[in-house]
Design goal:
It contains three helices and no strands. With 109 residues, it is mainly alpha-helical. It folds into two domains: 1-30; 36-104. The structure holds zinc ion (ZN).
Length: 109
């Protein structure tokens, strides 16, 4: 690879350019933080899918800041939230249809 600072060719594994001393490798600072929003999103995916969905989307974006930490969890939360929302919508339609059917048959009082 080439040094971004001085442009000289340097070893691919070099962290610091031997010519100009500038840091060249993307040294991932070990993020010790926990991607809390991803965990919150995952938990809320089961309780309140809308909140879970929003938190999971934020968590997925935040995962990049945490070096991928919590990305899988946020994705899982996202998928679960969507599934729950779909179930809610489908069951809502089903209940709505059942009620409308009952009313039309005069059995719903
Ligand atoms: Zn250099």
């Amino acid at each position: 690879m080439f040094c971004k600072h001085c442009g000289r060719e340097i070893d691919d594994k070099a962290i610091v350019c031997p010519y100009c001393g500038v840091q060249v490798a993307n040294v991932q600072p070990q993020q010790s933080g926990t991607n809390v929003i991803a965990i919150v999103g995952f938990i809320f995916a089961f309780i309140m899918p809308i909140v879970g969905l929003i938190c999971s989307i934020i968590g997925r974006n935040k995962a990049y800041e945490y070096g991928g930490n919590g990305r899988g969890l946020a994705t899982a939360g996202l998928v679960i939230s969507i599934i729950w929302l779909l179930i809610a919508v489908i069951s809502g339609i089903a209940v709505g249809c059942a009620v409308a059917d009952a009313i039309s048959q005069g059995t719903y009082y």
